[in-house]
Structures
1.
Amino acid sequence: MKLISALHVLLAAAVLTALGSTPIFASECEEEYYGCGGPVCYADVPNMIGDMGLGRRALLTNNGVTGDYVGAHLTPAGGRLFKAADNNSPIPESRFYYNFGYLPEAQSFQPLIGATPGPIRGIHVRLHEFGAEWAFWNNRVSAQLNLPFRCAANTGLDLSGGPGTYDIGSTELGNVSVALKGLLYRDRQKALSVGLAVDFPTADDVSFIDGNGDLFRVGNDSTTISPFVGWQILPSDDTFVQGFFQLAIPLDGYQYSIDPAAPFLPAQQFTFDEQTLLNVDVGVGRWLFRTAGNEGLALIAELHYTAALDGASSVYVPMTNNTFTQDDFSSYNATMGATLKLDQWTFTLALVVPLFDSPDRFTDGGMALQINRAL
């Protein structure tokens, strides 16, 4: 049913896009919306910054005897899923871009030292994304390709030998995503668009050895589709408000397998159903100054809400005394940044912070750097 609903959204977007010659796009005076040098226009509005995936699915595994656990960001999605609000605009555009994110201690591990659980250790996560977006059909539709990479703890973790066994220098490909976006409505002060993104399971499986020597493997098997709606409002000559509503709908679950260290215990397999996520993102910004050549500096503030629409689930494996848990979580994050526009280039630097202290909070914040080159 989830797939059918998402396909209905995509079909509706395609039909409405095909009506590009009708007033639904309000394409009259289109030349006034691009290349403006006076009052703010769509070409002047910086992209939303996003929250670097601070709100996302997380898997926890806990051993009832040793206390070993693997914390957030060790799900096999390469660190994050496509999010429409991350360095993106509701308006189709042609560009190349690079995103960098730094999340201090976003991974956490508790190794077994001898027979005693050791101290919890945090691992800094670095995110790198390279992508391109192409606008066509008179800038009414665009296609986007996103290539994410993550530098963090290796997907082949060994928690049985203490903190010195971690490999934290590896850079791994995440889940590659593609997206299609089309304008539904646009006039001089507001715009509305819809889109659909697909995350493909290109990231490596996650495997780790716990303090007992048991081998765990989490398969990256699920494709995720994400229908989204984007909107933009220009209240005055120098201010702008924009946002996205998005659903991340998994088409399958994760396959988990356990190979116990004890030779007399059989290997086991089970499936975790992935959670459907709701993302609501809103941002407001103001130009501090702009030149006639569309260069300038803008300040931006954003709020981001992410929630799992499915309930929490857990699986207990008595043979190895491990419990796998997928939390019923929600998160609220704030982003504050500045965007500098120089000719065809835009540079954005921002801080992202969780707003509430809760079990779903796995880091105290992060930094984002985004570079766009318009085509």
2.
Amino acid sequence: MIKKWLFSCMLILLSSWSFASPNPNSAAFVVGLAGKCMDVKGGQLNDGAEVILYTCHGGENQKWLKQGDQIKTVNGKCLDVKDGNASTGARVILWSCHNGDNQKWRYINGTIQSKMGSCLEVVNADPRDGTPLQTSVCQGRPSQQWSVEDTINAQPQPLPQPVPRPIPQPYPGNLSHSVKIIGLANKCLDVADGKAIVETKVIMYSCHGGANQSWRLEGSQIIGIGNKCLEINNANRGDGGNVVINNCDNGDNQSWKFVNGLIQNKIGTCLDVANASTAEGTAVKTYKCHGRANQLWRTENIGSDHGRPGPIYPESLTTEIRGLANKCLEPDYGRAADGTRLVMNNCNGKSYQQWEILGDVIRNINGKCVDVKDAKNKDATPVILWSCNGGDNQRWKLNQDATIQSKLGRCMDVLNASTANRTGVYTFKCHAQNNQQWKINR
């Protein structure tokens, strides 16, 4: 059966289940959204136990075996689509192993696909501990992406850092030139079908520079095609409000401000790409502000409006950050969890080695910011990922001497000038020696 599985995988250019290990019978960790692990709720490895997303801790209820086309716990229970339900939203549980299609899985391009045709995903793309897993139409979105790893950093979670309440940042005056508003997967805020009529929905679509992706930022209004204003339809104050264009009327539901990369309405909710989907035509909604990747936005000028003010949120540069021995800065094991330490590793072209330079903010492609742990201005303070909050410990200056200096005062430093893979990055007094030299392609 194992040979059959491997052979079928080769036919579709897949690796074996345990692509991090040559031994397909070894237990592995299945890591998904926000660097968290597939976990059996409460450690109850019995029939009907719910399978959830949870912070990786290395327990037996986070260890999985791929045997044939089944995924098993260490006590031999199988990953199972509950009741063999082939519909979107079917929950995933443990059950005694049998030969049903609802217990057969394969790994395809980072997704885990049931033989019934749907993919394993995190419900509502919610990265919080305890979020259930379900099956849904395979779209390859972040909530359906999984990696299989032999080892994890099963370290105690850091104590939460205080997150300062963002200071509202209204638009600084009228910017009458046109900008693109770019969000998840580098797609553009788009008026559906290019219709300049009231209550036309606003969606995400590949950037093409058309009139329906052109926006003017005037006062607190965002004005699009046909001089219509971006608004929350019917002034919906709850989650899931539809975002449309409408005749401008200066209502609270048409009043917006940028807050640390979020676009927040005066009502209090934030512009949000529904379900964190990267599919063309995904609806734009409003939800409670949380600062994850599907709520982060930037603007870029359209055309060559030289001499006019720059965009509200600085144009971004996406790049590798290379340091000592030409190695790349990355979150350890590519994780996105708050508190993940930054390390140096061989450059591999993976997305988690890509960084956005947004003014004085350095943000990983996963949406988390480079952060001086606990805002300590002391030598040997770890540099980590943390949810973006606008604090001085997340502000950086790219100096002419090739150092990267925290607003707190110290510089990013490869510990002990070591060239070993997974060497940690810390802050130390600036000295501009080799282990504080960084290269950013502009």
3.
Amino acid sequence: MIIKPEDSLCIVEIDEKGEKSAEILVKTLSMTGTKRQTITTDNLRQLAKDFGVTLPKKFL
């Protein structure tokens, strides 16, 4: 199986080596430097409100 960093969705077949394969996948994807998930400031504020927490302004 070839996993390219630009793939937005990677499906890994789970077998007896599945756990090790998943570990390698996570490490490989974490080294690409590409952001896979982002959140806007407004979305972060709404999420904090929904969970009843106060965000320090230095995080925004």
